[in-house]
Structure prediction request, 1246 residues.
Amino acid sequence: MFAYISRRLAVSLLILLTVSFAVYVIFAFLPFDPAALTCGKNCNDPGIIEANRHRLGYDLPFFTQYFLFLKGLFLGRSFGEGAAMINCPAPSLGYSFQQHACVTNLIGEALPVTFSLAIGAIFMWLALGIGLGILAARFRGRIVDQLSTIFVLIGTSLPTFLTGLLLMVFVVIRWHLIPFPSGNYTSFLENPFEWAQILFLPWLTLAFAYAALYTRFVRSSVIDTSNEDYIRTARAKGLSESVILGKHTLRAALAPIATMAGLDFAGLLGGAILTESVFNLPGLGRLAISAVVKYDLPIIVATTLLAAFIVVIMNLIVDILYAYIDPRVRVA
Amino acid sequence: MARVKKSTSIAIVAVLALAVVAGGLVKMSSGGSSKGGTITYLTHSEAWTHADPNRNYTGQHIAWFGSYLQRTLTAYARAEGSAGSAVVADLATDTGRSSNGNKTWEFTLRDGVSFEDGSAITCEDIKYGVSRTFATDVITDGPTYAIGMLDIPSAEDGSSVYKGPYATEGNDTAAYDKAVTCSEDNKTVTFNLKRAVGDFNYTTTYLSFGPVPKASDKGDAYDMAPVSSGPYKIEKYKAKDEMVLVRNTNWDKKSDPIRNAFPDRVVVRFGLAEEVRDQLVLNDSEKNSMSLDAVLPTNLPTVFDDDGKPNSKFAARALNVYDPYVTYSAVNVKKVPCLDIRKAIYYARDYAGLIQLGGGAAFGGDPADGVIKPLMGLDYAKVTGLDEFKPEGNAEAAKKYMDAAKSACPDVYAKATDPKRGLYFDFADTDTNKKSAAIWIDSMKKNAGITMKFNYIEAGSYYAVVLDQTKQGDLSRAGWAPDWANASTVIPELFTETGGFPMSQNWGDPAYKAFKEKSDAALSEPDRKKQGKMWAELNQYVMDQMWVIPGVFSKTQEVWGSGLGGVFFWEPQGAPSFGDIYIK
Amino acid sequence: MTLLKVENLSVDFPTPDGLVSAVHETSFEISAGETLAIVGESGSGKTVTNLALMGLIPPRTANISGSAKFESHAGPIDLLSMDRNELRQYRGKDIAMIFQDPMSALHPFYTIGDQIIEAHQIHNKVDLKVSKARAIELLELVGIQGADTRIKAFPHQFSGGMRQRVMIAMALVNNPLLLIADEPTTALDVTVQAQIIKLLEDLQKEFKMAMILITHDMGVVAGAADRVNVMYAGRIVESANVRDLYANPLMPYTQGLLASVPRMDRPHTNRLSAIPGQPPSMIALPSGCSFNPRCGRKDEVGANKCETQMPELTPRGIGHLSRCFIGEGA
Prediction:
């Protein structure tokens, strides 16, 4: 098991390096001039553009820029000289002139929001999806199963922004079941109750969509696994149905869920754009989108890299988790 | 009548005196308000476009910041209807004293006016505030009247020799010191103008003529933390989150006859999804709140009937009025230097479809024939030569001009009709605009064969982007209202190179030279009636060149929660008089 | 003594196309320590019979009738009168079953040690250490080297033959009175087959247990069984002790089966002999004797008789029963 982990870790590091390079290449060869984007209204003065270009290091050769970027990740980076110098400490992802802040700080503020959103949602949808899926499989063809089919249909058809909007308009605005949040986000450390209250509907919005998918998947996975020979063996040994379900069937049926959930989680960590917009959550999704709309290049590069990193790391975690569950994988 | 005992009468007088004093104390300590509570403003934008008083330019921003945070030498009266267009004294003791044939203006500051930290506002602070407008590389997007009016020579390239308070090299600060002077007691400011401006005390209603403490100036970053001279101060301001104003305990009601300071707190909530924002107000879910944005057209029928009058449910909390704005699509003449194509765009456009999106004429307003609204009276005359206009688009006329364009300006023609290139239209990123875009794309293609592409910009930063002459597209959506009742604040602002809102970038056009001469002449014409006729002629001139595609003489709708009172439409700013709103 | 006495066992599956009579009124016996082979093609009902006895047919899918009296450790019980839950105390304890495909019959995520220990723990409330010792003991018994380390291995780390040994160990961990082995060697190499069969025989003697050996391989039957039941289309068509069956097969189907076994001790012929035709569809069984469409000896008693009447299972000699009109009344 340890050998397996070491191997996967080494490969992941290599992938991370490759991804960072690929992203950097893409942005280095874009058709517009990053230096021109950094200054204000009367930027047709080539003097200012050149000065900014030098300040930000855009006039250096490509590989030097990439190397400085990597170095900045570990050691921090400074832009410009003298009195106007800006310093962004490690891990430096660049400086956004439009928001007058180091990109790392901006991401540092947005990431906990998106993380809170993702983690609550995943707990909800796993509990709902797996629970409902098992019930639907266990009572196949009966009322529970048919109701779950309706749930799956609705959940996969409704787009998240519509679900979110409906929840917001009815639960909060019309029926006053949950108060309209007094701020756009409260961190867990500040006030856990308020944190949960603000995130409850966003969690529900995401969980609704994902739970539907997972219910369908778990249901068919449990049914398929129940027909396996080793389940028949377990029954022949005299095990009770609940032990068979809990110990034998589920471990095999839910193993693929680990991979699915891990990757879905990674995708959400990149920013649940629609949900964050409807509920006004200042997460990575909104940071990325507004950066794209305003041509704020350093943020766009950073959020792209971050999303890629998260996917690579989650892949690693998921692989290790899967090897723990399924011993056949460990020789890979 | 029985004689009251002397001791009793003394006691009664004493008690009454105490009561009066106590009442006075209570009134003073609560800052002159008896209403209280928290008013909440809701908006889809992620932040204020600008909170820096030198960079604010929309009527709504000026009304809001002028009500709560920024005092100015003079201000508009807080009154409904045309009474609101009268100028009254704010920081100054009167509405200004002019001399030298309206080329010299003098204002004296009142006693007891101070910033939020209690320090007194002096003439130096006014002088410093006005100087910031000259730092055009940092202080962007605000009105540039100071540059155009103050008696400071221009350099060869047309820019002022004074570069603002930040530049150290090549900066003629002496010229500024001569143009704006302070009295010895630092309480009277004198402005020396380069030409006669009869209504300069209207110009000083702009926040950009207000005081800024030099020690607190952070240049670009002042936009996030302006210092207050008004009844409130900023406790918190975070983009995508909220702005919270609390009472400024150093504001003295006695020195401020025009502001009420009713609520204890004012909150602005940013970043709300558009539908959420509307539903909060429509459902009266947040009774003490008001939307800062236009109502989504899909929600208009909920509030108003087909004629545009509020339904019974909304009778006391909605209004639908003509605002001072004319909306239009500025054509970037630098990029589209072809009159025929500009005309083709005008005739090909499906005006009827677009106005329907906004809920129809009852809400959108009437089709504009230029940039001057009939309401302006003296300066308006009906524009001629637009007879081929058809609301649903006139394909024949459009085709005629496109055919002419093919030979007259083949390059622009090629660009406009090539599906891979096409013309780029700047739009703010809202759902309604996206629907408009569809109608534009369709009618342009169908009626003129033009490929129209759209560039969506975040609503809060829209003007910051399109006013950057390197970033502006081929066409840009815009709206403009006269800064006061004179088209001198329209024609030169929109169509001259030094104007504050020159989105047509038309100074390269061969027709510009004659235009500029006429415009300068109108600016210095002392006979108001004659001046009005000249503006009307220039409006015609602009339309002959089709430097803009005229939109609507627009109307605006406001909706607010049932807990708010005192809401009225303040005509000079085209927005509610926020400072008069209270919680019932 | 009679360990298991099955009487009139019927298993019918209701399907949208009609009632499938997988097993029709089948009766047989097995004595303690005896090896009974049940032989037949796929679909003959041999597996379903035993699944029914074990209570492994999914509930609400079949109609099961008949009785199966079993002398358990706790006294005589009727297997068919108990529901699945009640049978649990005997399943894996008094009666054990091993299955055809050892590749898929073991849970891939748990070690073989865990799986054997689990089988022991279900029926014995003892310390885990005791079960572990028992598991090692059994693994050594079935011939797995280094049992105390191999116990931590996973099924995918074993070969097919080894896995079947593990299955056998797991089945025997509780000293069952009866072991049902459903085609235990079909999925294995020929060389390994012989080993497994020998292993089963040795263990049977050691544990003194009865064994039902289900197979379609006549070669396996010859070496391992005491008695043989031949099944066709849900019925027993011939039953005899192994010597008699091979020496004197009475029913044409049995004759066909035996004839189709390739023999090393006979001269090579160019073709293997096979029974012509296909097994019948269980939904639309032929009238009369189920085998008649493929039978080459119908005319000996009159084809019409075979095609219209179902022969009874009648004794033809000592312990030798046959369901065929040929030789009846002899």
